[in-house]
Amino acid sequence: DAKTTQPNSMESNEEEPVHLPCNHSTISGTDYIHWYRQLPSQGPEYVIHGLTSNVNNRMASLAIAEDRKSSTLILHRATLRDAAVYYCIPRKETSGSRLTFGEGTQLTVNP
Amino acid sequence: EAQVTQNPRYLITVTGKKLTVTCSQNMNHEYMSWYRQDPGLGLRQIYYSMNVEVTDKGDVPEGYKVSRKEKRNFPLILESPSPNQTSLYFCASSLSVGQGGQPQHFGDGTRLSIL
């Protein structure tokens, strides 16, 4: 599995955009890039995923670098409910669906 | 509502007393799996199932059993629980296996304490 590097923690203010970076320099050409988050006392929650081009959904946007060695999860307007640990997970196309969670980034949202 | 349901949510028990944690999903998903989450170790996969009657070991299967007799259910069995199995457990499911783009849906977790 490709290794990832994420900041241990980040802070944001409510209603401001948040950019959560992830470095995955050892990613292979067929690995998808998944993002999950885990709110306190809950199970992980799928956020978004992509392969090569940028992706948007109702929760967030995912910007993938052209060389695919890094990606950024963008929360357009942070809310208090977005305070969570965010995990960036490269995942092979034929991975058998196992998710390998790293340490993630603890996002704090200030009111 | 699409969901993965685990029961119980909390359990305190004693060493050696067999227990089962149930997991059920209502999304007709083929793939189901169990993870445990421990401080400093993150989430680690215990067992997974690619479909009915098909199960396989994950990264930390010792001391656990699973079964998949029906598509919707994937119980985790601890035949003789020990204190090192005290952990937070999550069940997850996804539509199918072998496609890296499939998101996984997680339950809310079961906190087990083995005394």
In short:
The complex is a heterodimer of chains A (111) and B (115). Chain A has 111 residues and is an all-beta fold. Chain A contains no helices and nine strands.
What can you see in these coordinates?
- The complex is a heterodimer of chains A (111) and B (115).
- With 111 residues, chain A is mostly beta strands.
- Chain A is 0% helix and 45% strand.
- In chain A, the strands form two sheets. In chain A, strands 1-9-8-3-4 form a five-stranded mixed beta sheet, with no helix packed on it. A four-stranded antiparallel beta sheet of chain A has the order 2-7-6-5, with no helix packed on it.
- Chain B has 115 residues and is an all-beta fold.
- In chain B, strands 2, 4, 5, 6, 9, 10 and 11 form a seven-stranded mixed beta sheet that branches. Chain B has a four-stranded antiparallel beta sheet with strand order 1-3-8-7, with no helix packed on it.
- Chain B is globular, with a radius of gyration of 13 Å.
- Chains A and B meet through strand 4 of A and strand 5, strand 9 and strand 10 of B.
Rounded to the nearest angstrom, the radius of gyration of chain B is 13 Å
Low-confidence stretches of chain A: none
Q: Largest sheet of chain B, if any?
A: 7 strands, mixed
Which of globular, elongated, flat, extended, rod-shaped describes the shape of chain A?
A: globular
Tell me the structural class of chain A. Answer: mainly beta
Oligomer: heterodimer
The dominant shape of chain B is: globular
Number of strands of chain A: 9
Number of helices of chain B: 0
What does the average pLDDT of chain A come to? 91
Topology as H/E string of chain B? EEEEEEEEEEE
Work out the largest interface and the residue count of each chain: A-B, 24 and 25 residues
Mean pLDDT of chain B: 93
Assign a percent range to the helix content of chain A.
Answer: under 10%
Which sheet architecture does the biggest sheet of chain A show? 5 strands, mixed
Instruction: Give the N-to-C terminal Cα separation of chain B.
Output: 36 Å
- Low-pLDDT stretches of chain B: none
